[in-house]
Structure formats: structure tokens, C-alpha cells
Design brief:
Blueprint: E1 9-12, E2 15-19, H1 26-33, E3 47-50, E4 54-56, E5 64-66, E6 73-77, H2 86-99, E7 103-106, H3 139-148, E8 154-157, E9 160-161, H4 167-181, E10 185-190, H5 195-200, H6 208-222, E11 228-231, E12 236-240, E13 254-257, H7 261-269, E14 273-275, H8 279-289, E15 298-304, H9 311-323, E16 328-332, H10 337-351
Parallel strand pairs: 6-7, 6-16, 7-8, 8-10, 9-10, 10-13, 13-14, 14-15, 15-16
Antiparallel strand pairs: 1-2, 2-3, 4-5, 11-12
Amino acid sequence: MVDERGRERIPLGDVQCTRLSDRKLGWVGSLVSHRRIPAYLTSCAGRVVSMPPRLKSSSNEGHYMTTTAKPLKVGLSLRHTLQANPLALAELARVCDAVGLDSLWLPHHTIIPTDYASRYPYQKDSKLPFPADTLYSDSLTLLSYVAAVTTHVRLGTNVIPLITQHPLALAKQAATVDHLSGGRLELGLGSGWLIEEGTVLGQPTNKRARRLSETIDILRKAWTGQPFTHEGEFWQFPELVCSPAAAQGSDIPIWLGGSSPAVVEIIRTRGSGAILPPGDAGEEILAQLRPLLPADRDIISPVVVSPDSSDDDILRSLESWHRRGVAGVILLSPPDTDIAIPLMRRIGEHVLPRLAR
């Protein structure tokens, strides 16, 4: 079949490809190799790809994903037990980097009291779903380790409670990771719900949302590496420099956890977007939050993934979250690297190429 200009058109399902001369192949091959064209179109390398107005979801549920929607970003949480063996963790990070995952994320608490009165807002019993002696490495320190064994994948915190941090100390740690990784940091922050944690560390725990907003101001100034002063409600600094400068400068993405009206307003006006909690609580918050945020504020959601799920089931789950307005997912894999590594290989080879990315 030829088009009106006499060029060969090759149907590929709902996608059509137009063959170009060999001297025009380079940029298309580059797009394929950098995953800007999904791998299922690699047979079209060397042709101009014309996409239909809408891509039908593989779920066959009658839903469609528009080509104007932001592509879904897929990351992995390097949670608790995956941190137990540093060598295995490094191998998992390298695999994720190689197969095309977009990001790796680490949770953060400095300490967890064995007894606390604070209410964890995302569990029915108001308690963390794991014991106080659960392995919790320092997220930014461990991300520096992960940065050294990866080259492409972005590196995120999910999330650092600000009641555990002084803004300038946090600015320096974050800028250092960003500098060492070549500009790959994604900083997830929360105002902090575990009041006892902040109290033990000697940090103020009142007016947390307002402190969060002011902290963002300080971080943005500090990351430039240039002299600055600050006169705020909670912190006042004479002229100072915080080095190194972040590789991304003041533009490190800041993702915010929480769903209070005050935090939602900060997400709307100051942040890159929101990070949801896992489970039913996250789904409820998503339904409430998406209509409140402008189009340029994204939402990231944790998604449980099982090695027993088929490739099609995993794909359907990811597409379902994407249709509901989520721009990124953080996979919660099995807690054993021996299972997580082959699962990430499988997702990278058989699921990611089929996503509209």
C-alpha cells in the first residue's frame, strides 16, 4: 500500500509506518533506543511512525488512552528488606537501570519509637504496618550508593518527614546526591505524622504544613550554590552558601505526601506533584485529589506487583492507574531480591515495551 506521495505504508495494527530512505534512519533508531518510541514499534525503525488519535488499552475494557496524555513512568520501591544485602541491592538497581525502569525510590524514617500515640492516617488501626525494628536505611545516603551503580534511572525519596530535618542540612544532603548522580534526584517530602520522631530529634512539630512550605523556599535558594539570605516565619539566616550546588539547580522535582487541605494547596502551588500512600487509602485520595490539581501537577502511586501475576495482568493494572490520572507508579515488589530481580527483568522485557510510553 502506498500513500499519496508514492511512499510505502505498512499497516501495524492501529499504527501505520511510512518507509524512508536509508539516509534518514538515524533519528528514528535513536528514538527507539532511548525508549521514546515503544519497543513494539521497533519493527518500524527506519520509517516515520504515524499514530492514530487514540491508543486502545490492552485491557479490552473499552477505555482509551489519548496520545496527548503524559506517558506513564514506572519505578520501583527499594523498600526495607530489599536493603538487607547491599550487593544484591546493587544488582537489583543495575537491572532496573538496564531494563528501562524510570526511577528507584526509598522510604525514610530516622527513628521509629516502639510505642507512639501519633495516628498513622493510612491504616485502620492507625499504626505502621511493620514493627519498629524494620530496616530503615537513611534514604539519601543509600541513594548515593545506588547512584554509583546506575546511569539513567532517577532516584527518589518516598517520603522524608520534615519534622526529622533542618532545611539547610536537607538541602545539602539532597544537593550532594543530585551532584553525584548527575542530576537524577526526585525529592519526596512530607510534613510528618509521627510526632514522637520529631520530638526525639529535637525538631519542632507544630505548624507543620507552613514549615513545609517555607522549607521548599529554602531548598530552592540553597540548591543554586549562590549566596542567599532568608527571613521567614520559622527560619532566619544571614547571607550564606550551601554547597555543592545541585546538578539540577533549583529545579529538583519536589513530590509531596499528604492530603490535608494545607498540603494540597502546597502541591498545587509549590510542588511537582503528589505521592499517594499504598492501598485503599491511596485510591481514595486519588479520587479526591486529581480534580483539585492543575494539569501540570502529577500524581505518583505505589502499586503492588506479584511474581504470580501474568504480564497481561501487570500491564492491565498499570494502564488502569494511568487512565485514572496517575502519571507514575512505584512498584512494590516481593521483599526478596532473589524474586524481585527476575520480576523486574520480566517487567522490563515484556510489560514496559507494551505501555504507551
